[in-house]
Write a structure and sequence with these properties.
By secondary structure, this protein is of the alpha/beta class. It folds into three domains: about 70 residues, Arc Repressor Mutant, subunit A (Orthogonal Bundle), CATH 1.10.10; about 110 residues, D-Maltodextrin-Binding Protein, domain 2, CATH 3.40.190.10; about 100 residues, D-Maltodextrin-Binding Protein, domain 2 (3-Layer(aba) Sandwich), CATH 3.40.190. It is built from twelve helices and eleven strands. The chain starts with 6 loop residues before the first helix and ends with a helix.
Amino acid sequence: MTEWPDLAALDLLVGIDDHGGLGAAARAAGIAQPNASRALRRLEKQLGTVLVRRGRSGSALTPEGTVVAHWAREILTGTQRLLDAAAALRVEWHPELTVAASMTVAEHLIPRWLGAFRSVRDDVQIQLQVHNSMQVCDAVAAGRCDVGFVAGPAVPAGLHSVAVARDRLVVLVPSAHPWARRRRPLTVAELASTPLIVREEGSGTRRTLDLALQEYDRPVPLLELGSSAAVRTSVLGGVGPAVLSTLAVEDQLASGQLSVVEVEGLDLSRVLRAVWRPPRTLEGPAGELVRMILRSR
């Protein structure tokens, strides 16, 4: 099993890059310099390369250390987003802002949005609920949350909404699948006649796909699963093709594990929306959150 790098050591490495030396980095991190030196030596041993050049005039990153520090910044930023999202998931006795989000939004967009919001409104206690898009709309309509974020193609009557992001659904297969080697796009009829791995009823992804293929008689799905991650894993395992948001498969597409199969004449672009109950103008922390998201697009 792979041994994960120590986050404190990665923070020290970034600190050397920022502050120009190990002593300053250790002081910024609140660590005694001998302990900081030992942590960095353990990291160098684990990674098998020299990261810090030590000398009488001080310490500096080696070229290899500079590269590792660059990637360490991304890891530390992602870790902070994880902590922000986890903090929002904890149920507070008196939350001031209750947010409900569909699976796609919760997995790929909410951590960044809530992290940015908490950086300017750390006084607001946030509770995050995760459902599919239909359940989010139900929660908003019933007053169980202040604002919801959905990936469905439509919003129920009686709720207000605003577009906060866009994404696109694509047909996905493993790189070894015959469709990955096709020179011509699939036809819509070919896709509609193929058993697929699909999300559960009520999800925005499922609803978008069903509407796009509503004119066709379709076979029973291969599998019906409750999250994009489960669908993605099944596709990677060779169970069959699926239709998912590009947000859910960015890494697998970049690495070549999955391939997008084009479908002639089929546009599965969609709008991701914030939804809320009347009145039309969303006020309070929920309104601040939505306006912050709109400004950051």
